[in-house]
Amino acid sequence: MNLFVIAWSMCAGACAVIGLTQFVLWLREPDRGVYLLSATMSLAAAATALVEIALMKSNEIARYGRLLQWENATVFALIVSLVWFVHLRLGSRRRWLPALITLLWCTTLVISFFFPSSIVFSEIVRLDAHATAWGESYTTAVGTLNPWVLVPNIASLLMLAYVADASVQAWRAGKRLRALLVGGSIIVFMLLGGIQAPLIDAGLLRIPYMISFAFLAIVFALAYELTDSTRRASILERQRAEALADAREAHEGFERLARASLLGELVTGIAHELNQPLAAILANAQAAKRLLAAPAPDFDELRAIVDDVVRDDKRAGEMIHRLRELLQKRASQRERFPLAALVRETADLLHAELRAHDIRLSLELGDPAWTVDADRVGLQQVVLNLLSNAIRALREAPEADRQLKLRLERRNGAVRLIVIDGGPGIAPEVLPHVFDPFYTSNMGSLGMGLAICKRIVEAQGGTIEAHNRADGGAELGVTLPMAKRNA
């Protein structure tokens, strides 16, 4: 195969690949006109390479003239898109200059199709065949230059001046790498393509047109920018992933701190709750010891004592297990469980606190079979926080009003937990901000409890809201989607 055909075809392929890549980028970001312009000029350069192959192989004057017309059309698309690409990419303020260059090339295109031999020749006298040292043949034209050829030549000089000026402006603005890559590659293209083409037309050079090869300087610059952008995007994505992981870990740590702080307030009551089964175990063990010391031990009584010990031990163990679950570091895990059981377990943790402040707790937990798919420990923290806030609100309330109600309702494929207290309610100026981070009316509080509750509930696909009741007190509601088999 002809080496010229191979070389120019490879050049066309390289330009087309860059052009199609830029076009795809533009489809993804239609507001980035610079992608469309770079795609247009690259595809135009690919088309120019194909026309140059046809010119090298042409052996008819009329056909050669038509091919020159089409080459001027592809170069028109290349230069016009290129000049506006420079305007956008380098941020030049001289808008009149690319407009003038565009006007000159529009004039060139019209005149080129007016003459049979394009704007290059008034008349093509003959076609000369040439051969390289290695035997490759190609054709060049000999003819009378068209005086109108000064129009594209002047446009090329203006283009060279415009790119140099825009590159200097970009350099001064601190965009040095862009000025070197974009401005430098275009200047190389204009010098190579803008000088060799007029010399070939004038008969001073007997080589094939190589405008498409000159464009490879811009192709390399665009490819470098794409590679650099991909590399920087990869680095940013990795940094973003690391930052998200750090933020998630910090958030989880803060949630554990909030749980520990909340449980710290209840430590006395929890210790009392644990003391009861432990004291019962000790008493039962002492009673068993006395029975065993008797001449005729009552084994039925001993079995009853052992059953009591096992029951009290399980009670203490379950309480410790729940506390460990609340405090330990763990990844969020979804599981299916009955919401009523979780609410009851959490309320049991606060039994001593409720009793210490004479608060009457009422549970209306609906159907025990209502289940949700959610993070069990996260929801337990939500319930614990809502109950603790309600207890705190009831501490100073009149004894008759110290009533706390937990109710579960089913609503349109969701289960709703409602916490109602008979306290003073939420101050009107505080109510719009109760779920805002670090917003609190309680001295000594971090103001993160309800904010964390909101994040946990929304992560489960639910909602949480708060409002004051008309008959006094506050009501907080948590709505969660039910497991599919219950929905």
Describe the fold and architecture.
With 487 residues, the chain is α+β, with helices and mostly antiparallel strands. It has three domains: 3-238, Rhopdopsin 7-helix transmembrane proteins (Up-down Bundle); 266-329; 334-487, Heat Shock Protein 90 (2-Layer Sandwich). The protein contains 13 helices and nine strands. It has helices spanning 3-28, 33-57, 61-90, 96-114, 150-172, 176-201, 211-265, 267-293, 299-327, 339-349, 351-356, 376-394, 449-459, and strands spanning 121-131, 137-145, 334-338, 360-364, 371-375, 403-411, 414-421, 463-468, 474-481. The strands form three sheets. A five-stranded mixed beta sheet has the order 4-6-7-9-8. It has a two-stranded antiparallel ribbon with strand order 1-2. A two-stranded antiparallel sheet has the order 3-5. Helix 2 packs antiparallel against helix 3 (61-90) and helix 8 runs antiparallel to helix 9 (299-327). The longest helix has 55 residues, at 211-265. The protein starts with a helix and ends in a 6-residue tail after the last strand. The relative contact order is 0.06. The mean pLDDT is 81.
